[in-house]
Write a structure and sequence with these properties.
The chain is mainly alpha-helical and 317 residues long. The chain is 66% helix and 0% strand.
Length: 317
């Protein structure tokens, strides 16, 4: 399903030194990957209904957000994703590549903040989708392509990059997610990435495929994938806003909806409405789960369009 993206615009590329040897086809790959990353973020923002999250009905638990602001933020990140994809093709050495994409990611976060007036719309998504775009740009489709191997291979490669420390990254950011990790002893976005995104590869994508296979509409399949991630993820956005109790309530509620057949079944729909109401009272949002849904949508589209996305193995310096 193609993204409905009324705001897409190709902003000026982020300045990043890349190898002059990159061919037009390799540069085109970077363009395609950047577009797919933005599309995934827009798809996530516009997916409706989503408990506690921004969707087409309203702002969920986020008084300072709207779906239109989320879409503008996604479009502002395109130059960053494009630069990461170019760097992924141009830099063979992993430590140097990790340092480069870390710098690009920080520039992308600044661009996000400029568009949103200082509101954090996509900090976690820059991390997750940035790693995946970089890994996808390095992927050798001719050597690796099998039925559902592409997404898992890209996630695994992204995890390898995430496990490399960036010497230029600040040791402390003070971000709510970082503070929640320290307070509650969870891995957060960093731990999920370093493990190779198991919530994406082992939870979101299989749920998405099963839901489609049983005939669910695409929007329902995506909601079910989101619920499956919510049911298992130690979501630092939930922890930061409502503590462990709020996270446990959300996880149990998401599991209950899925156990009753999902939002397409009458009992599942009633359970979903009850979960939304409880999360609204708690004023909590599963923002980490939303980021991983966007990552799953990105990998799903890369995999389903692999014949058009990839060119033969990319050269590196």
């Amino acid at each position: 399903m193609a993204a409905l993206n009324p705001l897409r615009r190709h902003a000026a590329p982020l300045a990043v030194p890349v190898s002059a040897s990159l061919t037009d086809s390799r540069r085109a790959l970077a363009e395609r990957l950047a577009d797919l990353a933005v599309d995934a973020l827009v798809d996530e923002a516009m997916l409706t209904p989503k408990p506690g999250l921004v969707d087409m009905r309203g702002s969920g638990a986020h008084d300072d957000l709207s779906w239109m602001l989320m879409c503008r933020s996604a479009c502002a990140l395109r130059p960053g994703f494009h630069a990461m994809a170019l760097a992924g093709q141009a830099i063979a050495e992993p430590i140097r590549l990790r340092r480069r994409i870390g710098a690009i990611g920080r520039d992308a976060e600044s661009a996000m903040m400029a568009v949103t007036g200082g509101v954090n719309t996509h900090r976690g998504a820059i991390w997750a989708l940035g790693l995946m775009v970089t890994a996808a740009a390095r992927y050798d489709i001719t050597a690796n392509a099998t039925a559902h191997a592409v997404a898992a291979d890209i996630a695994r490669s992204a995890g390898m990059l995430a496990r490399i420390d960036d010497p230029d990254a600040p040791s402390r950011t003070g971000n709510k997610g970082e503070l929640a990790c320290a307070e509650h002893g969870v891995g957060g976005a960093r731990g999920q990435a370093r493990a190779g995104f198991p919530a994406v590869v082992d939870i979101a994508l299989p749920t998405l495929r099963r839901s489609r296979a049983r005939g669910d509409a695409e929007s329902r399949a995506r909601v079910h994938a989101l619920l499956a991630v919510m049911a298992c993820l130690d979501d630092t956005c939930l922890l930061a806003r409502g503590g462990r109790r709020a996270m446990e309530i959300t996880q149990a509620g998401a599991r209950h909806v899925l156990a009753l057949g999902g939002i397409g079944a009458p009992a599942g729909r009633r359970a979903f409405i009850a979960l939304e109401a409880r999360m609204r009272r708690l004023h909590v949002s599963p923002g980490g789960s939303a980021d991983l849904l966007a990552a799953a949508l990105l990998l799903d589209r890369i995999e389903s369009q692999q014949g058009r996305v990839f060119t033969p193995a990319q050269e590196t310096e």
